[in-house]
Fold these 2 entries.
Entry 1:
Amino acid sequence: MEPQALFDAVKAKFGDAALELQVTGFRPAFVVVAPASIADIARFLRDDPAMRFDSLMCLSGVDYKDRFAVACHLYSMRHRHAIGLKAYLPKENPLLPSMDAVWPAANFMERETYDLFGIVFEGSKDLRRILLPEDWEGHPLRKDYKYPDFYHGIKV
Amino acid sequence: MKPNVPVEALHTQEMLINMGPQHPSTHGVLRVILRTDGEVVVNARPDVGYLHRGLEKIGERVTYAQFMPFTDRLDYLAAMNCNCAWAWAVENLAGIEVPERAEYIRVIVCELNRISSHLIAFGSFTADMGAFTPFLYSIREREKVNDLFEAACGNRLTYNYARVGGVSADLPQGFLEKTKEFLDYFEPKIDEYNNLISYNKIFVHRLANVAAISADNAVAYGLTGPNLRGSGVSFDLRRDEPYSVYPKLEFDVCVGTGERGVLGDCFDRYMVRINEMRQSVRILRQAVAQIPEGPVLAKVPRVFKPAAGEVYFRSECPRGETGFYIISDGTGNPSRLKIRAGSFVTMNIFETVTRGLMIADIVAVIGSFDIILPEIDR
């Protein structure tokens, strides 16, 4: 399915929640959506017969300096097409509905994004730090992260 | 003698067992927190991250070319595949044309590495199941692949062989002949493995019907590579999202068939790897016959600045799909680099499939997933 047709279908169903289509320079293209409705749109993309994005390839947090984003790369095993799904989040208190009920694969990736970016996924079945120790302070992949001098009294 | 306590009055309690992070069957520093009721696992929760080195953060601070040695440290048993995955991703981002000979060399080293990686998967898995001999056989064959790689790039584990735009050096004289010799030597060995262990009754009993994953679940949980194909899903990026010169090479995609139990059980995942080694031999024979003469490295400046953009590129590594999501802001290094590793996503399904198994089956599940920890923790 062409990205434009896909974007139009999302727009027809969700109206203003579909914000923008990023095509030039983006492979695959990104459908940018309002954060609050990302889980509903994800479910629509998974279940609609023409889309059938049954596989979540990758879910990443991004720090664009002025704002955060969560970028999902979706793939359809049935139709063999791919699309990106993105939501921009504010720097203060970044919140996003969890998608682990749509794709169970999302859980570990959301935990990683929470761990390294501090983006909170509301309604997640299990949101804990995954790669860093549980008592680690800060979120290292943020651009303004300050490296700690000590960890438990040990110089790092 | 009658016990003086009625049996009904005896009660058991659940026990919390810490498996790992230093346990030989966990294939690295994986910690599994087991809640058991007798020998039955109520819940097995994986705890990963012991090898986290912040490779994604490092990636933001080095140039595209400088990141190449770090990809060796993703999946060290398949470093060639990781090298090439990174090179293909960057070339896709920057629109760099690669000489055809270089692409053939990449496919040759990737498939050789797939064989050696599957050999380790096979050897360590059988060792986990209590059969030590096959491990020695697999190491013996792997040495020959390591010798080939040492001739090509000087290293035996962390190769750092691919470059953005090609490979670091042409193959040494006699490499292709040596590769052919290896293939002639290796192909009959696969039957030997099958005779030795694959259809051994005890071995089959340990694996068949254990931790079966349905095709739908495998897709929903994002399994890739042999673990996905073990569930009967015929999907291989080399065939279905072709890259490099794979479209010119003929091979079959091996899938699980439930030949000794339920479709998608540990035995199917094991068997997919055995069969894939045969297909890699097939690919290698064609690639060695077809490889053209020519340059092996395109002219790419040491520091280049791809146009601003975002690319997700994935390729088929022995442990599933390795994807790189690169965001370029037009400077010489990535503004964000996300590594999607097959083993990391695979661990997500671990807690679900191990519920209700015996403790000894946990070892079988870890072995059948063929995870590698540096790729999980990055």
Note: The mean pLDDT of chain A is 90.
Entry 2:
Amino acid sequence: MPGPILYSTNPWFATQIADKYRGGVYLAWVCECFDSSKAPPSSAASHIAPSSNPRSIYQRLREDCEAEEGHSELIKGYRKTFIRLARAWSADGSITNDHCDEIIATVKSPSWKIWRPVLYVIPRADIERAGRLNSIRRPDRAGYGPEQQIVDLLRHEFDIIELGPP
Amino acid sequence: MIEILDHYDRRTAAGLLARASLALQSGEGGEKSIVDNEAAVREALIAQARLKLGIKPDDEGPEVIEQIGSYFDDESDRLAGNPHTRAAFERLITRGDLPSDLYDIRIIPNVQNLYGKKFERERVFIERTIRTPTKEQHFGPPASENEPYLISLFAREFKTPYPLRDFTMLVAGKRMLERTLEIHQAWRLYGSKVNLDNPQDLVELLRRFADVYGADILVDGQRGRFFLTAKKVERTTRLDIPAGREIMVTHFGQTNPQSGGRYAALVVAIDLGLYRATLDKLDYKDVS
């Protein structure tokens, strides 16, 4: 049975993009448990791939930021995605060219602060009841376990936390 | 060069490629089409990429998807050109949105003199506070007359083996063009001396600090130890200070961007003897 909370790990810059450029609308890939490796073996959540596990992502991102790991595959992936999103939003007219430049210039900058991980903690019930919890189809998931996406998450609907050292 | 994109302006073409990459990567790609029959355009783009990269039409492996996405990214980069980084950063600086670890930090001599021989150690705490703050507050272009302007405040907690000696570093600086952050104020706030509970913002924390360590001065005819803004701050504004007490009045010089008029912001008058006594009593060598 799915838990009452959804979790999503994101780089801090994702929150800045939502606040500054997307009118406070957040996009989140979510998981129904914080650590899928600790989920009961018979549960669907136990089949969530490590690359989609919020806890694993959080740890890797934090370690890469603390070590200032210039070859971090995770950060390279986020950088690529943010550039794609900025260009897509610029083309559909939802952000200006200046905003597109600001996003791209920032993610290409040597800042480490923008990549530090934050955890979204999202109460599930209202989102699900409103039909806003979209299941990700199998080819786009990293594993067999369920993954969902919310594309219109508002700031008052969830909490953002930063975890202390392990 | 992907011929099918010749029909579109560069921004749209770069966007089509980005949306195709997102769709390949994660199924995202925008619900509404940005051009007529975008699905067909996307199919054509992918087919052309496969041809160009020598990939079989039925090969859907993750490496192949990655390869096609990277190809689209390169083409998108070429079409969109480089971002106007300098202008982008200037706008971010003005708004207070530039990530704080991108600033070159310059600490004014007043702060260096305040900490004397221990300044180099303090500099480490100041820089960590700016690079990785737990709270930050930025004043952008003023919404009304004589608000603080281009000023940023940062706070970060530092731990010692003894909770009583833990402190919050509060740093205030002025954002300059060329990505310089000029630090005018850096104070340690100990919980046993200053109330650190739930301040409304970092200005409120600075005000609480001044309440504890301040000395009254006269500014614009008002007596006080903290002023968010003031028309004029002069040496003569200090009240009679008893002999032996060293009072530091610190503020940010501001120019109103509309009128050009000069004023001061975040004016605080601190009794340095009182402050240093706290440092002498509570400082501890192991701070993390």
Note: Residues 110 and 184 of chain B are 7 Å apart (CA to CA).
